[in-house]
Amino acid sequence: MSAANSKATITAETRTRAEACGLEPPRDPCVLVLFGATGDLAGRKVVPSLCDLLGHGGLPEPFVLMGVGRSEHSAESFREHLREAVAEHKPDALKHWDELAPRVLYRRVDNDNDGDFKALADALDTLDREQRLGGNRIFYLAVPPTAYADLAASLGRAGLAAQTGDSEGWSRLVVEKPFGHDLASARALDAALHEHFGEDQIFRIDHYLAKETVQNVLSLRFANALFEPVWNRRYIRSVTVTAAESIGVGHRAGYYDRFGVLRDMFQNHMMQLLALCAMEPPSLYEADRIRDEKNKVYRALRPFPTERIEQHLVLGQYAPGTLDGELVPGYLDEEGVDPESLTPTFAAMRVYVDNWRWQGVPFCLVSGKRLAAKRTEIVIHFHEVPHSMFRSVFGEHIASNRLVLGIQPGEAVTLTFQAKAPGSRMCLRPVTMEFDYAAGFDAPALEAYEKVLLDVMLGDQTLFWRQDGVELCWGFLTPILMGCDCPEQAERLLLYKAGTWGPREAQRLMEPDS
After folding, report:
1. What is the pLDDT of residues 328-346, one digit of tens each?
2. Of 32, 298, 352, 443, which alpha carbon lies 20 to 30 A from 387's?
3. Which domains, and CATH codes, for the chain?
4. Which one, of 349, 351, 367, lies nearest residue 359 by Cα?
5. What is the per-residue pLDDT across 168-184, written as a single tens digit (0 to 9) for each?
């Protein structure tokens, strides 16, 4: 497993581009050890993102990608496998493949064989000496969640979790969601990871947080005197957070049928979006201070009224329907799904944050698959004006202002307000001011996984989960799961046609006074 040809030079041009767009390239050389290197996540997200990062000047020098898997591969056959994966999932990234390929190595490791992990440790030591990597290692677990604990233990027993200080190199562990399937399993997983790795070494990914427009929520709120003074119960009537997907379960059917929409979306993505909307301003833009403020939101969540669960939660499952003019199957007809499955693919949930800022303001969280369109957005509904001097002209009701924070696919901020319509009569019309997030910015923006990988190399945990936050969210969600996931609760699972916006009953949760 020679690394003689794995070194490549980042050009001055790519360094210049990185500096021009404000990208902070990592200064520490490192090796990224990618477990599950021949799997779907590696080929679909991780490797294409590394190609693009290289093109943006976002990889350190030197940098090595070592794929680890059970399959037999030479370095050459593994590189060809990855090249084909990049071509399939992100063809544009291929233009950087030839620069990344010499840095790519492969090693076969049996996850149950401690001898293989000891040999991996020896190989990494050799690579450190040859490439002058400084002992800096990232272990990325792109594997099923059931393998996290065993892999972390094997790495620890091989001495690969040890780090003796910044001058002697660092070791970081990257895990994907889900972090357990309830509170008890989340705590058990955490105990297993912490047996060998410290909290500062563990990076729990939530790629939603790495989206540019999600990060923009904090900038919008806390860098503008226009918004922060009215960001409270006195002026805001309700908040709706939507993460709608038009796709079905696809290749994730085996995983999804065990977890469902609440575990897949609400325990992580939806809770993070809620926290960004509701959190107090941290004193500094630092990882732990930001996560401290998010955790205050989770602690302030009103306990879910499980005895009246149907008044605050609507669950659905998609049936056959039409999407973009084509017939699509229902969830029970998807390959890999139990034909009698009661797994929800849609949820609308109304929650309250019991603190001074938000007391009485409903937050409606909505997410589902096979909906009418792909759309992730946060909508701030302001109160109507307290008194209308126009009642003799328009009546008592004047539509309230709305602020829409578009996350995907429309990356924009829009503010809707009332203005006089042109003409001799006094007539109101709703008008919209819009900020297009990408307008006027020519430099390439990092996609979510590119940002995630960059932050791991930089050691910046701002956009990653901390264990206490994971447990707080599971603590809130687990009673709901116990109240609605049992087969005898099948009457609570409402069918909706694919290509619609979910069960009609969900609309009432979005009405603040319902």
Report:
1. 999 999 999 999 999 999 9
2. 352
3. 12-205 (3.40.50.720), 211-510 (3.30.360.10)
4. 351
5. 789 999 999 889 888 99
